[in-house]
């Protein structure tokens, strides 16, 4: 039996979580060390680990500045330790100052020290001794794989991932057909006008009768007398012969592009978990955020914003800034963000705007070349 020790950090809870998931065995104890401003995170982590309460020890630095007082940290920790106990200490977490103090204290108790490197998905085991030439550091590959729900919960958010509807409604062949129509410029001005009417007047409705779309009773809605001809041109057959349901309306007005990206990612990367359109929100906050395509691979979260077109640089800037705000406020510092669009970035200006905000932009030149797109996606997870 051993005691698994973590310093709790509010900005990146993943190292502590993975360390426990990888190292815990029945009968082990957990010890969490936390500063006062991360007290809520400490309680949350204790609940999330699903370990009996009597197996968890919590050390809280009570005052605001205690995490910057070396002696105070040492005193708070050392009085909770016991000689003869085996301690596995993860030094990835908290401030560097806290990690130094924790290391100093646990060295006196013969602890084993580790560092969880989430981007490499490894745990590094090190000996802090005078011998620097014996190459005794060990790299332990993390076997545990989180799913999307775990990641979201770890960042103290709620989601609708438990609901159905986060997978494609159409086959890969169907979305490839639509992509070919768009990418080869086979749609007429009338086709684009029909899509715009569907987007502005019908997107979000639970259903729309085709007869109503042909001859709408609402004065504000523009008639689409050729809607059936349009659907035939797209090779799109509704589930019901006489209406379009909500999922189908969403699909026709942009959802197909998310499904196209979903299929390409699944084929190229084989993610551990992937979803279309999950809604996430912070507990107690009404505002919701919908993610287009989100997936997790080797415990790393990736978000892909899918836009069929980006008409102006101003609009692109808004998309980039929103993505940055979402990542920093909700999804954690290790989240990787991408924007995928059929917009042609002829002078590279949009790529530069995105890169300046640590976001990758895949434009038409990338997505229209299957081998290049495949390579770019695989590069994303390296």
Main attributes of the structure:
382 residues; alpha/beta; five-stranded mixed beta sheet; 14 helices
How would you describe this structure to a colleague?
The chain has 382 residues and is α/β, with parallel strands linked by helices. Helix content is 40%, strand content 20%. It has helices at residues 14-23, 39-48, 70-78, 96-107, 148-154, 172-183, 189-201, 210-214, 227-233, 246-269, 313-331, 349-356, 364-367, 370-380, and strands at residues 3-7, 29-35, 56-61, 87-90, 112-117, 122-126, 138-141, 157-159, 207-209, 243-245, 273-276, 279-282, 289-290, 293-297, 300-307, 336-341, 360-362. The strands form four sheets. It has a seven-stranded mixed sheet, sandwiched between helices. Strands 11-14-15-16-17 form a five-stranded mixed sheet, sandwiched between helices. It has a three-stranded antiparallel sheet with strand order 8-12-13. A hairpin with a 6-residue loop joins β12 (279-282) and β13 (289-290). α7 (189-201) packs across α10 (246-269).
